[in-house]
Amino acid sequence: MQPELERELIRKCKIGDTRFYEPLVRAYEPSGLRLAVAMMGNTEDAQDALQEAFVKSYRSLHRFDLRQPFGPWFFQILRNQCRDMLRSRQARFKMETLDERLEARPASSEKGPERAHQRTAARETLWLGLEQIGDEHREILVLKELEGFRYSEIAQILEIPEGTVASRLYHARHALKDALVEQGVEYP
Amino acid sequence: MADRVTKEDLMRYMDGEMPPEQRARLDTELERSTELKRELAIFRAMRTDFQGLSFDPGTYHKSVWDKVNASVTRPIGWVLVVVGIIVWTAYGGYLFTTSPANAWEKLATGAIVIGILTLLASVIWERYQDWGVDPYKDIHR
């Protein structure tokens, strides 16, 4: 969504017109759901978290700084919502429905079928690895690798100093690598 | 990892968050260190796997907009209903007390109204208490 259009929609929402909130919800819903699924591990809980995060962000719009982009601000609320739900429900990241929802894209056959098969297997075990590495590592990896946020945006979402992002990413990637190697995935 | 390259440097390099001059320095370090090159290659391969996972929410889920909309507009509805009831009750009370009707008529009407409200309140309270101890209250149909 164009930043100018986004700002205009938020301005209208701040006045109290809920109709203008719909395009924002629809624009951020797919990426929000991806993050929520990656954090919660199943679609049902992810949808609950996403819905609640949209409601909370609407109610907090009066505090939103129009000079800032909506995305990182909303993802911060969503991330906190997911964490609250995981805490309050005493639930763990559960991969109940993930397998049905995920489609491993055909692996590239550039380096031969064996290599392609290996890559596909790595993708399948990737979610298992994510389950093992814990919330903190998982959320930063999803924000970077799946959503492609910049360090400054990740820092805002996770409420950490920008300088900490690189270090945390390193540890998360390392933890994931270890988890995958443990499952027999071979990297070059 | 090479001594002069920190783990943070490696991440910034990989994620394109490094200024060009520092990037050039790291390119040189990478040429020198096989260990560093290998680590970078592993992280890049993991990234490719990560991005290879597709999650298509559109195919599987209904938009949350309807529920979000209901949640953000419902409180406004309740506020309006409550304000309306208060205004009408106050106005009705004013008309009732200032009307030229006989005292016994006012008394009888008042008793009926208070009786109905008391019964209604007791039923609501009873239901609320039952709901509080209902073991199945969290189960959705």
Structure description:
- Chain A has 188 residues and is mostly helical.
- Chain A is elongated and about 55 Å long.
- Helix content of chain A is 71%, strand content 2%.
- Chain A is built from 9 helices and 1 strand.
- The longest helix of chain A has 21 residues, at 113-133.
- Chain B is rod-shaped, with a radius of gyration of 35 Å.
- Chain B folds into 3 domains: 7-52, no CATH class; 64-99; 103-141.
- Chain B is an all-alpha fold and 141 residues long.
- Chains A and B meet through helix 2, helix 3, strand 1, helix 6 and helix 7 of A and helix 1, helix 3, strand 1, helix 4 and helix 5 of B.
Keywords:
heterodimer, A: 188 residues, mainly alpha, Rna Polymerase Sigma Factor, Chain: A, Arc Repressor Mutant, subunit A, 9 helices, B: 141 residues, 6 helices
Describe the secondary structure blueprint for this structure.
The complex is a heterodimer of chains A (188) and B (141).
Chain A lengths: L2 H13 L6 H19 L2 H17 L10 H19 L9 H4 E3 L8 H21 L1 H12 L4 H8 L3 H21 L6
Helix pairs in contact in A: 2-3, 2-4, 2-7, 3-4, 4-8, 6-9, 7-9, 8-9
Chain B lengths: L6 H8 L5 H13 L1 H19 E3 L1 H4 L4 H34 L4 H30 L9
Number of helices of chain B: 6
Rg of chain B, please?
35 Å
Instruction: Name the poorly predicted regions of chain B.
Output: none
Instruction: Quote the average pLDDT of chain B.
Output: 85
Alpha-beta classification of chain A: mainly alpha
Measure the end-to-end span of chain A. 39 Å
- Summarize the main sheet of chain A: none
CATH fold node name of the largest domain in chain A: Rna Polymerase Sigma Factor, Chain: A
| Subunit organisation of the chains | heterodimer
Number of strands of chain A: 1
